[in-house]
Amino acid sequence: MTHEEKCIRPRNERTAPVKTPSQALFVRRLLRWYRRQGRSLPWRRTADPYRILVSEVMLQQTQVDRVLPKYREFLRRYPSIEALARARVGEVREVWYPLGYNVRPVRLWGIANEVVRRHEGRVPAERAALLGLKGIGPYTAGAVRAFAFRRRAAVVDTNVRRVLQRVFFGRARPDRQVWALAERLLPRHPYDFNQALMDFGALVCTARAPACARCPMASLCRSYDRFGRGPAGVRAVRAVRPERARPAAAPAPGRRAV
Predict the structure, then answer these.
(1) Domain count, the chain
(2) Do 129 and 119 touch, CB atoms closer than 8 A?
(3) Residue 94 host element (H or E)
């Protein structure tokens, strides 16, 4: 075993469980890749829980490029959660157009009103309190905790699920197993790790044409034999079953696009 492959015991085992050698190597390679290739996005330059919540709801089933201009416009119109709560829901839906899935602005407006009424206008940091807000599911709760409050919370969206299933399992696994693995992989400072996983799934380990030829996880990946044998190591592939698009209806809370 090389020095790079040795398992490193974290200083605080309660916050960072000991990883297997392949898990530790995955984390190091992912963070190294992210330092060079990670996307610069406006919601990554703020710790405001409201702004991060807006971005996460907008990103459900919607591409980043479509969200960027609307995110800025929406925050100009509603710069605080109190401003959003005071607005008419019909007006909020108009401002949201043309992102689609128009139940999302209604949900976000409802969340804003609940936060103002029940939490004095402050987005809560605790998982139970976040899940108690109608329209917030496990993914969105994890994202708000991880990105706004820097809590040690796993974040499993479509991209993360795909990466972990391919690299560590080689096939589809139940969500509970994927979430458990995501939590085990978390380093002591998980903010960049969570962002890196999502970017890696969006830019390298994509659903239909993974860039296996330039993937830093090739030697670890249990799916490489299936996906990495096309021309130059890149070929179109079929997504594993949990990644298949759902019918064009309102997305479940917390399902995120790339």
Answers:
(1) 2
(2) yes
(3) helix 89-96
Per the structure block, which two tokens stand in for 145?
């905790």
Binning the chain into helix, strand and coil, the percentages to the nearest 5 are 55, 0, 45
Given the residues 4, 5, 13, 56, the one annotated as active site: 56
Task: Say whether pTM exceeds 0.85.
Answer: no
* Mean local confidence (pLDDT), 171-180: 96
Q: How confident is the model at residue 236 (pLDDT cuts 50, 70, 90)?
A: very low
Position 11 scores a pLDDT of 35
Distance between CA atoms of residues 178 and 161, nearest Å: 7
- Dist CA 23 CA 110 (whole Å): 40
Catalytic (active site) residue 56:
yes
Containing domain of residue 171, as a range? 3-37+154-242
Query: Closest Cα partner for 237 from 165, 174, 180, 139?
Result: 165
